[in-house]
Amino acid sequence: YKVGVNEPIYKTSKLDFTETVRESRSLTFDILSDVMLDFPILLNGVYQFYATFNGEIYLLYNQPTLSKTTDKLKYKYTTTLENCYRDIENIYMKDFLMGNEYYNATTDFAFNGDLQQLVYRINANLQHQLSGWSIVIQEGYTLPEKTFVISFSKQTIASVLKETFYDDNKVDYDVTGKVITIGVNRTVIDNIF
């Protein structure tokens, strides 16, 4: 609570967390206030509201939903913060290589190569289009003599990851913050107590 003479009183509700793998994660909560609040999303290109949860940053991408209540804290803002996965859901995979090697901005291309080469190609996209993003292979993870033969046509980086790694090849990955990790091992819990 924040109490003062002309200051608003705030209260937040319990936090709901969507724990997902290979998808966007979110935090949802209500902010209750005695006065109407302003939620500017961006100021000079910087997101203004964020939370850190389990070591990951969650941003406010959309205005909270406002409703009125009948108690002293009469304004209720249902607020959802999302992790950075949303960035790769909105950027198309393009035919980039890093450096001065090869540059073609088309979203239609084919790829034939191993895991290291594919990670290199995705990193080229991330570094060219999104600041601070990278893709890495989990230390110790190997894929026995796998050649990826794939083609893309107007697909986002998120959909390329899902289709190429998980759907077609059952290679697990996770996105935490702005790092995509290929070859994540998930522990199966089969002993419930």
Radius of gyration, taken over Cα atoms and rounded to an integer in Å: 21 Å
SSE order: EEEEEEEEEHEEEHEEHEE
Low-confidence stretches: 1-8, 187-193
Structural class given helices, strands, pairing?
Answer: alpha+beta
Helix share, percent: 10-25%
Mean pLDDT over the residues: 78
Number of helices: 3
Strand content: 25-35%
- Largest sheet report: 5 strands, antiparallel
- Shape, principal axes of CA atoms: elongated
Distance between the first and last residues' Cα: 38 Å
Give the strand tally.
16
Could you list some keywords that capture this structure?
disordered C terminus; 17% helix; 193 residues; five-stranded antiparallel β-sheet; alpha+beta; 3 helices; elongated
Topology, element by element:
Blueprint: E1 10-12, E2 16-18, E3 26-33, E4 42-43, E5 46-47, E6 50-53, E7 56-59, E8 65-68, E9 75-82, H1 85-89, E10 95-96, E11 103-104, E12 108-113, H2 115-129, E13 134-137, E14 148-153, H3 157-169, E15 173-176, E16 179-182
Parallel strand pairs: 13-16
Antiparallel strand pairs: 1-3, 2-3, 3-9, 4-5, 6-7, 8-9, 10-11, 12-14, 15-16
What does this structure look like?
By secondary structure, the chain is α+β, with helices and mostly antiparallel strands. Helices cover 17% and strands 34% of the residues. The protein has helices spanning 85-89, 115-129, 157-169, and strands at residues 10-12, 16-18, 26-33, 42-43, 46-47, 50-53, 56-59, 65-68, 75-82, 95-96, 103-104, 108-113, 134-137, 148-153, 173-176, 179-182. The strands form six sheets. Strands 1, 2, 3, 8 and 9 form a five-stranded antiparallel β-sheet that branches. Strands 13-16-15 form a three-stranded mixed β-sheet. It is elongated, with a radius of gyration of 21 Å.
